[in-house]
Every structure is written in structure tokens, then in C-alpha cells.
Design a protein that fits this description.
Helix content: 40-55%
Strand content: 5-15%
Largest sheet: 8 strands, parallel, barrel
Bound molecules: beta-D-galactopyranose
Order of helices and strands: EHHHEHHEHHEHHHEEHHEEHEHEHEEEH
Oligomer: single chain
Strand order of the largest sheet: 1-2-3-4-5-7-10-11
CATH topology: TIM Barrel
CATH class: Alpha Beta
CATH architecture: Alpha-Beta Barrel
């Protein structure tokens, strides 16, 4: 019996119950069997970037231990599994000039095994790990990246699209652009405040739109799949709800995180007005007159509007927002945004300081997406709770988190009428948590990344998630039997 309590029948029968991972965080095998290096290999190998100089060289060794991962997936009874492809494992120099057959073999096996076990794969084409060869060519700052990405995406659709029906082009363009090019804390580690962040975000949208159009024109009629882009967002509320400035800053906060990408794709084909006017105003204020910081979408290439077949949302936390527009600041993204998010004292923090646990924020965010972005079908493609310090397999607080979160999703479905299609827990396994290395653990399975065996051991939250899924599936099955029987009776 599940100890996670959920209202009976809260989730639709075909709800996707998943868990997610990303190539660099779990695969290891960083230079095995012809894989080319990625920007995360380079970033981690340069010392001083990651907690204790750890790297994803081995990580969970999923490249060699896929069978163990599959056992975890089977044990949980997942209906869906979200993984990412390592671009440079498939195409070592990033281009289709040279394909790595061993990389193709690896992902073919993963996909075939999933399908043989009735698990639907959702594949992310890009989860932070650009081939280093393309970085050397200018990476996400170069306009050419959209061509390279489109060719890579077509190659994947052609090679795997007969079996993969759910695709994510880019994972969290906000995080890639902001952490990688503004703050310099993620690969490629550039600190170019207030400029590159927008260029990179723009090229990610261009790349995404190209790939979606390629799928739409060449593959959809044959393969019948769906393509989207995974957007991360906090939920934000004004620090002082009575202050019009904080209220306005909250809208801006949301627009600079979610609207930046969601507005072009789901609403207008262009950036939110708040972003355009703030950046313009700051250019004047700071006397910045070089090339436009927020690029424009050109007429002669595919526009991002309408290029998502569902809304893919990564949600972790919430913020209270205060206006900072009167603060003096240099050219920077946060100066443009002019809205600072703080956490509420009453929100528990799990493991890492940024991760205030606010499950009710998810319900509110889902409702906001329904209302702002034209009631899309939504998959929650990531959501999770971290653990630091000594490993606790009896992770009661994480179980509570899953219960609270799933209850909030149930309310969003039943009371707010949000079209939520699935939920992917982050993550299947404890893994390489970017700059935090292995010190922060999000898994449903513990992996001791410091040991040679890399044994997978289920957490209590993994067992409880298993029970949630199996209860849901048996209820759905019994309902469909009742339905069929009553139909038969009718016929008689
Ligand atoms: C997301 C990211 C994941 C994972 C997670 C937890 O931003 O897509 O790779 O690290 O955060 O921090």
C-alpha cells in the first residue's frame, strides 16, 4: 500500500508517470568508444569550477551500467523515462560529417529496452552538453549553431524517431544562457553580463524552432511524435502584495524567466513587452548603443510561434519578489530584470539553499501557464527534492514532498482544469549535480558515486513512488474493465 495519500481517481488513466535524467549527469564514459568531448568535460577538467573538482567522467557509469538503470526503472514501474542524448557521443565533432556507431548502438539499446518493457521514452536532445568542437566554432553565440542543431536533430529523428515519440529540443535555455554566459558558473563558464545571455537565449530559440519545423515538415506524418522545449520556472508572488512596484516586479520576474521563452513559442512569436521595454530603457540609461542586446526574430527564418506540441515545465521552487528598479547597477541581466526573488522564512529548504520547498507554488504556476499560454497540454518534465550530508535511505521528508506535490497536481487537474499529462521526478538516480558535484542528491535511487561498484539502492521515496504508480495503474485497469463490462452489458 502506498503511504503517499492521494485522492482516488485524481489522475487521468493515461497519465505519464516518469523519472528523468541527463546524459552528462549519469553516463560517464566521457571519452569511451569514440565519444567527443563536450563543454562540460572541458569545464570540469579545468580545476576550481565544481565542488571538490569532481567531474562527470564516470558519474553513475550509465554508459556501461544501463542494465542496472533499467532494473531501477522496472522496479519503479515507470510508464515513461526521460533521458537525454549526449550530442558528442552521437556526433563527436557535433556535425553529421562523422557519426559514432557505438553511440548510436548505445541509445538504440536504451530505447529498445525501454519499449520492450512498455516504458515510453522521452528524449532531450540538448541538456547543457554542447560538443566542444562546436564551442570552438563559437558555440551558442554563433548564428551557425541553429544549422548545426537542426542537422543533429534531423539525424536523431531519422535514426530513433521510429520509436521515440516525445522529444525535447533544449532543456532549460534560461539556465544554459544565464548560468553559462552571464554568471559563468556553468559551462562554458563565460561572464559577459547583460549581452551574451540574450544572444544565447535567442540562438537556442532559433535552433529549437528550426528543429520543430524540420520535424513538422519531414517526420511528423511518418512518425506521429511530439516536440517541445523544456522551460524552467519559479513561481513568484510579490513580497509586499500591497506595493504596486512589487506587483509589477513580480510580473517582470516571471517574464524574464519563463516569458522570455514561452511568450515567443506560445503567445506572440516575440519577446515579452516587459523585456523589450526594460532592456531598451536600460540601454538609454547606461548609454549602451552597440548591437541590440535583445536580438530580433528575422522574417526569413522559422519563427518560434507555435513550435511546441506540448508545454514541458521544470519546476523546483518559488520566490517572493521585490522591486529593485531604483537600485543602481551595471549592465547585467539582473539590472534589466530589476526584480529580486527572496525566499520566505516559513518555507523549508532542502539540501541546497536555493531550493525552498513550495509544492503549492507548482499548482499556482500550472494555473498561470494555463491562463497565460492558452491552456496547453503540460508535462512536468522535472521536479524534485534534494538531500545533502549523510545518505538517508529512509528519506521521509522527500516522501512528504512527493505527497504534497502530487496532491497539488491533483488539485490543478481537478479544481483548476489544468491539462497536466504527466510527471517526471528528478531524478531516477543520485547523480552529478553540476557545480555541486555528487554532494547534492536528487535520486529515487541512491548511487554511491564514490565507490567503484556504483550500486543502485532504492530510497524509501522510490518505494512510495512505485506504490503510487501501481495503485494508479490498477485503479485505471479496474475502471476500464468496469467500463468495458458495462458496454458489453449495454450491447447485450
Ligand atoms: C535542473 C536541471 C537538472 C538538474 C536539476 C536539479 O535545472 O535541468 O539537470 O540538475 O536542475 O538541480
Amino acid at each position: 500500500m502506498s503511504e503517499i495519500k492521494l485522492p482516488v481517481g485524481a489522475f487521468p488513466p493515461d497519465f505519464a508517470w516518469g523519472a528523468a535524467t541527463a546524459a552528462y549527469q549519469i553516463e560517464g564514459g566521457w571519452n569511451m568508444d569514440g565519444k567527443g568531448p563536450s563543454i562540460w568535460d572541458t569545464f570540469c577538467h579545468a580545476k576550481g569550477k565544481v565542488y571538490e573538482d569532481q567531474t562527470g567522467d564516470v558519474a553513475c557509469n550509465s554508459y556501461q551500467l544501463w542494465d542496472e538503470d533499467l532494473k531501477c526503472i522496472q522496479q519503479l514501474g515507470l510508464t515513461h523515462y526521460r533521458l537525454s542524448f549526449s550530442w558528442s557521443r552521437l556526433l563527436p565533432d557535433g556535425t553529421t560529417n562523422c557519426v559514432n556507431p557505438k553511440g548510436v548502438m548505445y541509445y538504440n539499446k536504451v530505447i529498445n529496452d525501454l519499449i520492450a518493457n512498455a516504458v515510453t521514452p522521452m528524449v532531450t536532445l540538448y541538456h547543457f552538453d554542447l560538443p566542444q568542437a562546436l564551442e570552438n566554432h563559437g558555440g551558442w553565440k554563433s548564428p551557425d549553431i541553429a544549422d548545426f542543431f537542426d542537422s543533429y536533430a534531423r539525424f536523431c529523428f531519422e535514426t530513433f524517431g521510429d520509436r521515440v515519440k516525445l522529444w525535447i529540443t533544449v532543456n532549460e535555455p534560461y539556465v544554459c544562457a544565464k548560468f553559462g554566459y552571464e554568471d559563468g558558473i556553468f559551462a562554458p563558464g563565460l561572464k559577459e553580463p547583460g549581452t551574451s545571455v540574450y544572444l544565447v537565449g535567442h540562438n537556442m530559440l532559433r535552433a529549437h524552432a528550426r528543429a520543430w519545423h524540420s520535424y513538422d515538415a519531414n517526420f511528423r506524418h511518418l512518425q506521429g511524435g511530439k516536440v517541445s522545449i523544456a522551460l524552467n520556472s519559479d513561481w513568484a508572488v510579490p513580497l509586499d502584495p500591497a506595493s504596486p512596484k512589487d506587483v509589477e516586479a513580480t510580473a517582470r520576474y516571471m517574464d524574464f524567466i519563463l516569458g522570455w521563452f514561452a511568450c515567443p513559442v506560445f503567445c506572440t512569436g516575440d519577446y515579452p513587452e516587459t523585456m523589450k521595454s526594460r532592456i531598451e530603457a536600460r540601454n538609454l540609461e547606461l548609454g549602451f548603443s552597440k548591437a541590440p542586446r535583445l536580438p530580433k526574430f528575422l522574417e526569413d527564418e522559422p519563427n518560434p510561434l507555435g513550435t511546441a506540441d506540448f508545454f514541458a515545465l521544470n519546476y523546483y521552487t518559488s520566490r517572493k519578489v521585490k522591486d529593485t528598479s531604483s537600485h543602481r547597477s551595471e549592465l547585467s541581466f539582473s539590472g534589466d530584470q530589476a526584480a529580486e526573488g527572496v525566499t520566505d522564512q516559513s518555507w523549508p529548504v532542502c539540501g541546497v539553499s536555493w531550493l525552498a520547498v513550495v509544492p503549492e507554488g507548482l499548482r499556482k504556476l500550472l494555473k498561470y501557464i494555463k491562463e497565460t499560454y492558452n491552456n496547453p497540454a503540460i508535462y512536468i518534465t522535472e521536479n524534485g527534492f534534494s538531500q545533502t550530508g549523510p545518505v538517508q535511505l529512509e528519506d521521509i521528508d522527500r516522501c512528504q514532498f512527493y505527497q504534497d506535490t502530487l496532491q497539488e497536481i491533483a488539485k490543478a487537474l481537478r479544481e483548476d482544469g489544468v491539462d497536466v499529462r504527466g510527471y517526471f521526478a528528478w531524478s531516477l538516480l543520485d547523480n552529478f549535480e553540476w557545480t555541486e558535484g555528487f554532494s547534492v542528491r536528487f535520486g529515487l535511487f541512491h548511487v554511491d558515486c564514490y565507490s567503484a561498484e556504483l550500486k543502485r539502492s532504492i530510497y524509501r521515496s522510490g518505494r512510495e513512488y512505485t506504490a503510487v504508480i501501481s495503485n494508479h495503474l490498477s485503479l485505471s485497469l479496474s475502471l476500464s474493465h468496469t467500463h468495458t463490462e458495462s458496454n458489453l452489458n449495454k450491447e447485450v
